[in-house]
Write a structure and sequence with these properties.
The complex is a heterodimer of chains A (252) and B (232). With 252 residues, chain A is of the alpha+beta class. Chain A is built from five helices and ten strands; from the N terminus they run ααββαββββαββββα. A two-stranded antiparallel sheet of chain B has the order 1-2. Classes of the chains: A alpha+beta (252), B mainly alpha (232).
């Protein structure tokens, strides 16, 4: 039974069979691993939120998955004016649902940052947490570094005036330079810094390292200027929204 | 009848003549380590050698990923070598490599999430690693499964050697660490060597330093083995 390997029919048949086998295999593997991958992503987000709370830096990703509800008591989505969106207020009794667009946990900030160009139209999720009786507001921020996205989670005190903790991460900043924003020495500088002055909201400045600092300034990364600027920009753009909400909440 | 048995016996002899680790087969593994190293002699796969060598951990995981992809690709292409239509052989190789890379990427995302974050796009870029397509086209298409397996092992270990050596120097002098463990003390707190005024070399963290290190590697290699020096 001689098959002509140079014939068109053979070539096409071979290609079709190969593609079907490979496609099936990949679909099978992708489906099988999907739950694990989703869990990793979800736990990572939980970990960010818990890590920026005071004294919680060492919580691991797996721990974060199970301990989340012990810390995060309420969650809510705000608009740009710092007003609560309807039906978005949830407490820890309602389980996290990343399919529900009214659940603050489901908001994909990176997607919104890329697709919604006006900051006024974006959603602003907020996580209201409790550590040892103290109330903290955890605000996610999203911006761009030198190569791709950088993001962070900032814990504000109950007056919305002081930073109680911060974590930052990045997609692909240069290791050793911009990537250092996710290191403790950079993140810990933000603890105790103020975002409020007598005249209202005042943004944090990320300065060139080495210059003297006041309550509104932190050292940037030398060699990571673009990334530092990105951190400053995303915090400046976003934190005012949350401060408005917290101030209004405390006033009423 | 008598003639037939003789032929069968001869065939057996032919098969037995090549043991698993014959001299030729051993050479398939040892050659790419030195005399025919895919990175330093054939100058293939340079791009990833420049990009993922800032930290040793990433370099090691990258090497293991390349080893897996090259091994599986070489084996599967070698198994199919008599079936693959000549006109679409490059496409077939590409499909095999691409799907293996996707598998590696998915597995890393599920089980080694932190590492996959670190390697980010570079896992996907294994597809474009010239070593892999080069070995498939030059070796696996024309050889049996066992030699192809050895060839894949040899070449990926040869690649790994360069990556590990380069990342050793880059991480050590770029950030004073090895596998993330501080060797020279803590730079921000100014302990250890840093207390004496030592500073990390920022250039070591950037891709150009890999070029310099790979060049030094080639220089040392050719010094040790003068037969490698090209005379024009």
């Amino acid at each position: 039974m001689a098959v002509n390997k140079d014939s068109n029919a053979y070539t096409i048949t071979f290609a079709i069979i190969l593609v079907i086998i490979v496609g099936g295999l990949l679909a099978f593997i992708s489906n099988g691993l999907k739950p694990l991958q989703d869990k990793n992503l979800k736990n990572e987000k939980k970990q960010y939120i818990l890590n920026c709370l005071p004294g919680n830096k060492l919580i691991s990703r797996d721990q974060a998955g199970t301990e989340f509800a012990n810390y995060v008591k309420e969650r809510v989505i705000l608009n740009y004016n710092g007003e609560q969106l309807e039906n978005t207020f949830m407490n820890s009794d309602q389980s996290l649902d990343d399919k529900n667009p009214n659940d603050a946990f489901s908001i994909d900030l990176l997607k919104e940052y890329k697709t919604i160009s006006k900051k006024e139209d974006r959603n602003y999720p907020l996580f209201i947490c409790e550590v040892k009786g103290e109330k903290y507001y955890v605000a996610p921020v999203m911006g761009k570094g030198l190569w791709a996205a950088v993001w962070g989670y900032i814990a504000l005190d109950e007056n919305g005036e002081k930073i109680a903790g911060a974590v930052f991460d990045h997609k692909s900043e240069t290791p050793g330079l911009g990537a250092e924003i996710s290191q403790d020495f950079f993140e810990d500088q933000f603890i105790g810094k103020l975002i409020s002055s007598e005249s209202g909201y005042k943004a944090i400045e990320v300065n060139k390292p080495g210059s003297p600092l006041n309550d509104y300034q932190v050292d940037g990364i030398s060699g990571g200027t673009f990334t530092s600027v990105g951190v400053e920009e995303m915090m400046e753009r976003t934190l005012s929204v949350y401060q408005k909400y917290i101030k209004n909440l405390n006033r009423s | 009848m008598a003639e037939e048995t003789v032929i069968v016996e001869e065939k057996k002899e032919v098969k037995e003549r090549e043991p698993l680790f014959s001299k030729k087969n051993k050479k398939l593994i040892t050659d790419p380590l030195d005399e025919n190293n895919p990175v330093t002699i054939q100058v293939l796969g340079i791009c990833s050698a420049l990009a993922v060598t800032v930290q040793m951990k990433a370099a090691v995981v990258m090497s293991i990923s390349v080893l897996f992809v090259l091994l599986m690709a070489n084996i599967s292409v070698s198994l199919m070598r008599n079936l693959i239509p000549n006109r679409i052989r490059i496409i077939v190789q590409l499909v095999v490599v691409a799907s293996l890379v996707i598998i590696v990427d998915q597995v890393l995302k599920a089980y080694l999430y932190d590492v996959s974050k670190e390697l980010s796009v570079f896992v996907g870029l294994i597809i474009t690693n010239c070593i892999i397509m080069g070995r498939l086209e030059a070796f696996a298409l024309g050889n049996k499964v066992w030699p192809s397996t050895l060839d894949a092992l040899g070449n990926s270990i040869g690649y790994a050697m360069v990556l590990v050596v380069v990342s050793f120097f880059k991480e050590l002098f770029g950030s004073g660490k090895l596998f993330g463990i501080e060797i020279f003390g803590n730079a921000t707190e100014g302990t250890g060597l840093y207390a004496m005024g030592y500073m990390d070399n920022g250039l070591m963290l950037l891709p150009p330093s890999s070029l310099i290190l790979v060049a030094i590697y080639i220089w040392v290699q050719k010094m040790r083995n003068p037969t490698l020096i090209e005379t024009h």
